[in-house]
Every structure is written in C-alpha cells, then in structure tokens.
C-alpha cells in the first residue's frame, strides 16, 4: 500500500494526539511510587476498602466498597456505577454493554450485588453526579471470579534461589531472610553454592520468632565434573555432602546410570547427562524439588552448558521444575535476554504437550545492590504455605514465574489461566500484601542485626496478611 506524504504526516500527528490523550487520562497512575517489590498500589485501594475482591464464579455475591477518608453520600449528589465483565463471559447474565446503574451509598459504603459469571475479571466504575449533572469518577474497582478448584487456593509468593556470604553473596544469611520478607515474599530458601548448612542456619536463627515468612532448606548443587547447576529446594539433607570428601560413590553411581543410557544425541556429554539424572534423583529421594537452573545463562560468550544438553534435558524432563525466569538485571538483559530464551524454550516444550512445572527466582547475590531481589519470584497457588503443598503446587503446574525487569512492569509466565489471574493479583491484591510484609521484614532485619527488642512488635504484626486475605476472598 502506497500512502501520500500528507496522509502519513496526518496519521502520525493524530497518533501522537491520541497517545498523548491517553497519557493524560491515566497520567496519575504513572506517578505512583513503586514498593520495594516493584508493585504499585492501585489508587482506589488507597482510598477505599473493597471486600470481597475474589468471589466464586457463577454465583451472586455482594461486594462492599467502603470509603475511608471521604464521606458518602454528599447532599444533593447522586451516584451510579458501570459494571463490565472483562472477558465478556455473559451467557447467563445477558450482559451486552456497559450501562450506568443507580446506587445509593449508606454510611460511606457502596454495596453492590452481582452475579459474577464464569472465571474472569470484573470492573466496577463508581461515579458521583453533582446537582448540575456533572459526573466525576470516584474510583475504578477490580474483582475476580474463580471456579471452585482455584477459589479454594491462595497465592504464595516465594523466591527459592539466592545466595549469602556463606558462598558468593554479599550479605549474612539472616539478612537475606529479613530482606525477603521486606520485599513481600511469603516463603524463601537460601541456596548457597555447595552449602546446605547455610539454609539450616537461617531456619535456626528465626525459629522461635513470631513471623509469617516460611523459611525452607535449599542449596545450589554442583556435582563434580558436571557444569549443570541444580537447585535443591526443601530437601531434608544436603546433596554436596554425598561427594564433598569422597566422590568415589558418586562416580560409581553416575557410571551405572551411564551404562543404562543407550545412544545419546551428538554433542550431549554422556557423563554430564548421567550426573544430571543422578542429581535430580538424589534431591527427589530427600523430599526436595529439583530445579533445572538458568538453562540459557551465558557467562562470557558461550552458554554455560551445551545447547544439545539443554535440548536433551527438555526432551526427557528429568527435572521437577524449570527455572523459567531467572534473576537477570536490566543491564545484563541488554547483552543476552536469558529469560526471553527460557520462555521461548518453555513454550516450544508446552506445544509438544509436555508437562513443564515452572519457577521464577532472583538468584540474588546481594539484596541491596540489584534490581532483581524481591522482583523475580514464583507465585504458588496452594492450599497452604507448607512445604509439601508448595512442592505439589509447582509439580502440578499450579505456579507462575514473575519478573519485574528494572523494577517496573510485573510479568507472569506459565499456564494462561494462572497468568490472567496473576495480572489481577499483581495489581489489585498483592501490592497491599507486599506493603504489610515490609514492616515485618524490617523488624526481622533488626533481629538478625542483634536487636531482640523487636520481638514484641513482631507479635503484633503476626497474622496480618491472613486477616487481609480473609477479607479479600469471599466467605
Ligand atoms: Zn547457578
Ligand atoms: Zn545461584
């Protein structure tokens, strides 16, 4: 298609005008400061309490929008709202387009009863109309209806790959744990290189403290003569101990695996592959989750392991979970976008019908010196934040990997259903959660820094997220 110069200019100018207009309309959102997790609290969630926000699908539920700082109704004003089901599932309700409905607030409460059809997000925009008929938006409120299987689960944020100075990280193990809570995580595991005991140290340090962060054991595993990195999450023992002082048994066991392998594709190192099978077996035998770490990490100019080996590990899926999103900061991503490659590989494997459980992690080596810490994590959809439930959730593909590159746009990766739901959670539920966690984390950092006086304050904070979630989810 050929266009005249004049029409191109006109088109460009109008495009600028349109985008400029959008910028103006949504402009106030741009200036909301981010939390340390990278998330931002939606404006309406600052000024109003909205309960419940997560409701059962295909049922009528009454939601309440409670004004906390401004009094409603005002004299000589009327109120109306516009309801929209985002996914347009409206077979039962017959919804066709957004229509304003009258509402009368009472004692600062806007109460709305709706049939929330199917599994989707729902938006309610509240407006105030003055005596001259001029309308003003009060706020836009977001809800999500869920089918029963997902409705009974809760989202738990965790990072299960990070380092302290027990290996090559910057801070003390206790510091890393406190910083995890400060960044809004519900569970974590310290995974120092060749060091399981550092994770046990973190559990011991906080074990008598009244806190809601769950701390689990972990380790980054590097078996002899195998360059592949593994994360052992939740295992009852260290893997490194199996060869630290004497690797003869390790070598014998890997040899036995090699003998049973048969023909391997070209460029797949037989020992490396057999040793990888061995590592995942040992982690699993100890009740842990074996994670294939950063398959497309490129230190220097070459991928850290051969592409052929990555391909073969994917074809055979010897891992329990894939590190889909790894902690790579904004500047590192300019050279090689490891996460983009990992996501592409994941999608290709999924298109073959493979089951690929995923996690997102920070691989942080310093909580205060990177834009990854607290901003690369996993959301597990589980019935509780206990270890067996979390491992089960990940293995059953009930988790998503989240990245917030440069601390900006939160992106979730995994099954579409969970990603869509996570979009809602990351904007309208988790920001307040993260903010609540911040104070507990700050006090935990104090405690790790030898200030035991904070225990009384921690007691007061205990259970705040649970209380919040009890209001967010419909009874
Ligand atoms: Zn590694
Ligand atoms: Zn690491």
What is the β-strand count?
19
CATH architecture of the largest domain: Alpha-Beta Barrel
* First-residue to last-residue Cα separation: 58 Å
Instruction: Report the CATH superfamily of the largest domain.
Output: Metal-dependent hydrolases
CATH class of the largest domain, named Alpha Beta
Number of helices: 16
Strand content: 15-25%
Report what the structure shows:
Helix 5 (173-182) packs antiparallel against helix 14 (430-448), helix 7 packs across helix 8 and helix 14 packs antiparallel against helix 15 (455-461). This protein has helices spanning 5-25, 27-30, 43-47, 148-151, 173-182, 197-206, 248-260, 270-285, 307-316, 330-335, 338-351, 387-395, 416-428, 430-448, 455-461, 464-472; strands spanning 48-51, 54-56, 59-67, 78-85, 100-103, 109-116, 120-129, 135-146, 154-159, 187-189, 214-216, 218-221, 230-233, 289-292, 321-325, 358-360, 376-382, 399-403, 411-413. The strands form 4 sheets. A 6-stranded mixed β-sheet has the order 11-10-9-17-18-19, with helices on both faces. It has a 5-stranded mixed β-sheet with strand order 2-8-7-4-5. It is 36% helix and 22% strand. It contains 16 helices and 19 strands. Strand 12 (218-221) and strand 13 (230-233) form a beta hairpin. It folds into 2 domains: 43-146, SOR catalytic domain (Immunoglobulin-like); 154-470, Metal-dependent hydrolases (TIM Barrel, Alpha-Beta Barrel), CATH 3.20.20.140. It is α/β, with parallel strands linked by helices and 475 residues long. The longest helix has 21 residues, at 5-25. Residues 161, 163, 220, 363 line the site of one zinc ion.
């Amino acid at each position: 298609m050929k266009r005249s110069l004049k029409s191109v200019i006109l088109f460009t100018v109008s495009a600028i005008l349109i985008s400029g207009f959008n910028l103006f309309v949504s402009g106030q959102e741009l200036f909301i400061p981010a939390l340390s997790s990278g998330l931002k609290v939606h404006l309406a969630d600052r000024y109003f309490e909205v309960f419940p926000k997560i409701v059962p699908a295909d049922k009528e539920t009454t939601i309440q929008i409670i004004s906390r700082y401004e009094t409603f109704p005002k004299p000589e004003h009327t109120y109306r709202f516009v309801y929209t089901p985002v996914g347009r599932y409206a077979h039962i309700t017959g919804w066709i387009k957004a229509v304003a409905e009258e509402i009368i607030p009472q004692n600062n409460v806007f109460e709305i009863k709706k049939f929330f059809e199917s599994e989707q997000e729902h938006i309610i925009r509240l407006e105030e109309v003055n005596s001259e008929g001029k309308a003003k938006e009060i706020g836009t409120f977001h809800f999500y209806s869920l089918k029963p299987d997902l409705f009974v689960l809760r989202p738990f944020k965790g990072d299960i790959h990070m380092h302290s100075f027990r290996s090559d990280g910057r801070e003390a193990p206790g510091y890393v744990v406190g910083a995890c809570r400060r960044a809004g995580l519900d569970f974590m595991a310290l995974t120092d290189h060749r060091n399981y005991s550092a994770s046990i140290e973190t559990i011991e340090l906080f074990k008598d403290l009244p806190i809601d962060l769950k701390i689990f054991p972990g380790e980054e595993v590097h078996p002899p003569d195998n360059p592949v990195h593994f994360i052992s999450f939740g295992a009852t023992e260290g893997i490194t101990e199996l060869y630290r002082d004497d690797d003869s048994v390790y070598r014998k066991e890997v040899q036995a695996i090699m003998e049973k392998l048969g023909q391997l594709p070209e460029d797949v190192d037989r020992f490396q592959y057999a040793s990888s099978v061995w590592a995942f077996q040992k982690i699993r035998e100890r009740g842990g989750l074996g994670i294939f770490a950063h398959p497309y990490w490129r230190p220097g100019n070459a991928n850290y392991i051969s592409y052929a080996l990555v391909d073969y590990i994917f074809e055979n899926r010897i891992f329990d979970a894939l590190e889909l999103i790894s902690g790579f900061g904004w500047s590192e991503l300019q050279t090689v976008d490891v996460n983009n490659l990992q996501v592409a590989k994941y999608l290709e494997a999924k298109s073959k019908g493979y089951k690929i459980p995923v996690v997102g992690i920070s691989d942080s080596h310093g909580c205060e010196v990177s834009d990854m810490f607290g901003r690369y994590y996993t959301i597990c959809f589980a019935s509780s934040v206990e270890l067996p439930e979390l491992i089960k959730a990940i293995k059953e593909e009930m988790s998503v990997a989240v990245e917030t590159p440069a601390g900006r746009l939160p992106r979730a990766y995994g099954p579409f259903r969970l990603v869509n739901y996570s979009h809602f959670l990351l904007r309208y539920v988790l920001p307040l959660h993260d903010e609540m966690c911040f104070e507990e984390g700050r006090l935990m950092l104090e405690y790790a820094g030898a200030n035991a006086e904070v225990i009384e304050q921690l007691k007061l904070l205990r259970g705040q997220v649970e209380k919040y979630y009890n209001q967010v989810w419909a009874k």
